[in-house]
Amino acid sequence: MNAATLFGLSGAALVGFGLYGLVTHPEPLRKILAFNLLGSGVFLVFGVVSRRAAASGLGGDPVPQAMVITAIVVAFAATAMAIALVLRLLQETGRSTLSADNSGGTDTVRGNS
Amino acid sequence: MPDAPVLPDATTTDGALLVLAIVLPAAGILLSFVLGGRYVERIASVLLPSGLFLATIIFADVWQSGQRLIYIVGDWKPPLGIALRADGLSAAMMVAMAIVICAVAVFACADFGTRAGSVEARAPFAFWILLMAIWGAMNMVFLGGDLFTLYVAIELLTFAAVPLVCLDGRAETLQAALRYLLFALLGSILYLVGTALLYGSYATLDIVLLSRRVHMEPATLVAATLMTTGLFAKTALFPLHLWLPPAHAGAPAAASAVLSAVVVKGSFFIVVRLWFDVMPGLLGPAGAQLFGALGAAAIVFGSVVALRQQRLKLLIAYSTVAQIGYLLLMFPLALDTVSAQLQSSGALTGGMLQAISHATAKAAMFMAAGLIYVALGHDRIAELGGIARALPMTIFAFALGGVSLIGLPPSGGFLSKWLLLEATVATGQWWWAIVMLAGGLFTSGYMFIVLSSAVAPSSEPLKLRIDVPRYQEAAALALALTSLLLGLVALGPIDILQIGRPESTMVGSR
């Protein structure tokens, strides 16, 4: 097993953990952490793609590296926004759960615009 | 029209217009941050109509030349560079979305206006900036020529759409926004995995280059599945629709209109790009039937739940869930049974027309519901009695939107469902016709519930809480009329949807 395959498998494992956490955990903060884990796995896969596509003599294909930088920025911004929403929700209600009394059912919206 | 030749990827004349369509909104946002809340409405009121003007010019250009507009950014050709391409689909969608956004902007002047001398508030400042951001991100979705640009575009769209949900900062809307964001993030990360796998296999993400190289292999299939699932989560296709009703129903009326009419179409447009342009031969009969089944489930589920709603805005939100289902029906109907390729046929035209007519109709309905809400102070359907007498124009706009959703002639909904039904007959897939007709029946059902309650006489004289400004009603009515008259595009411009398609076959005659 060469290094690229090892990193690829690690990336796949991270994606798996992240996806599991994102789907199963009810708390938003854990979901956000799981999203970041999932994201790291994807970034690692990009790294593997870059290494495998490298021409001889080069360390890696620069195009996936450019993409992964953009993707990291996007994931950072997404995390910041999600955290801001969680904090605001905590300030408003004193708790930060999504589930409990309203779980996306038909009469979730009590007030209106 | 000859078959569209494989064009050399070079910047066409007027290609710079495509850059302008993305740069203008970005410039508007930056300018708003510099000048602050007092000027942001004025900036938007200048830029949004010029965006409509720009989209119209691009539309006319594509329509007249019969060719795509292309701009190669920085003259770096793909695969290394990025191409912006406007084909018929993008031009038509750009115009439609610009019309909706402009109408929403007129409508929003009442709720988010910044009058001279008023105190600077955060909600209007955020609203106008987010509206411009949505406009820019949608243009990027329509014009982006490679899958990674499209990824950035849908992320921008998400980041602009989520805060719109919680503009009023109430706990319920914050929760709805957070749930929406988590769904959207899951969707985008799945899409990103797909792009990584595709790049790993074919060393390009450019749509045109990729479509020549792509072939059936496990990695491609996994990538396509992940990307499609992610995009479906963002489009709120049943069963990934859980976030949509609370988010769309809880947002302020102007924001709901944008979210329901415009934002969900962005991710759907990328699904169409992916399957019709990048890999038309990969879906196959089984995949196409699966897409159709998901669409049918969405139609049935959304409609049945909509019928049971007590509140107007939730009813409209569930109706969106149902109407998204119609968009998916074009996949089995566009599949050519001989070559097992997705053809750019009447079914594609019908599907995209459904997207456009739903956008105009649904925006009008959300605006009308918003007006009813502010006038009555509630939106309980059972207690709407007498509202038709108090706000005739609003109820008329709501009803016309419903006419388009049901698919009565001459509305855009009629034409799109007609094209889809024609395709069911041509391809011998009668079961989709049943789904479509049942959906129309359900839609008439919930429209009837609302309208019969609205025209019923009220037991006591109805007192409106505030006078609804006439121009808000007019904005809703104008959009509803657009949707109603959209059926008339059959007389000409409908063929633009086929311009620049790989296998260009015109539906009507030019």
Low-confidence stretches of chain B: 1-7, 504-510
Strands in their spatial order, largest beta sheet of chain B: 1-2
Question: Taking Cα atoms only, what radius of gyration of chain A do you get, to the nearest Å?
Answer: 19 Å
What's the rounded overall pLDDT mean of chain A? Answer: 82
Helix content of chain A: 55-70%
Measured by DSSP, the beta-strand proportion of chain B falls in under 5%
The helix fraction of chain B, in percent, is over 70%
Mean pLDDT over the residues of chain B = 87
Count of alpha and pi helical runs of chain A:
3
Query: How many domains in all of chain A?
Result: 1
* Text of the CATH class of chain A: Mainly Alpha
Write the H/E string of chain B, N to C: HHEEHHHHHHHHHHHEEHHHHHH
Shape of chain A: elongated
- Given the C-alpha coordinates, what overall shape of chain B results? globular
> Could you give the count of β-strands of chain A?
0
How would you characterize this protein structure?
The complex is a heterodimer of chains A (113) and B (510). The radius of gyration of chain A is 19 Å and the shape is elongated. The model of chain A is unreliable at 100-113 (pLDDT under 50). Chain A has a single domain (3-93), classed as Orthogonal Bundle (Helix Hairpins). Chain A has three helices and no strands. In chain A, helix 1 (3-24) runs antiparallel to helix 2. Chain A is mainly alpha-helical and 113 residues long. The relative contact order of chain A is 0.12. Chain B is mostly helical and 510 residues long. Chain B has a domain at 283-510. Chain B has a two-stranded antiparallel sheet with strand order 1-2. In chain B, strand 3 (335-336) and strand 4 form a beta hairpin. Residues 1-7 and 504-510 of chain B have low confidence and may be disordered. Chains A and B meet through helix 2 and helix 3 of A and helix 5, helix 6, helix 9 and helix 14 of B.
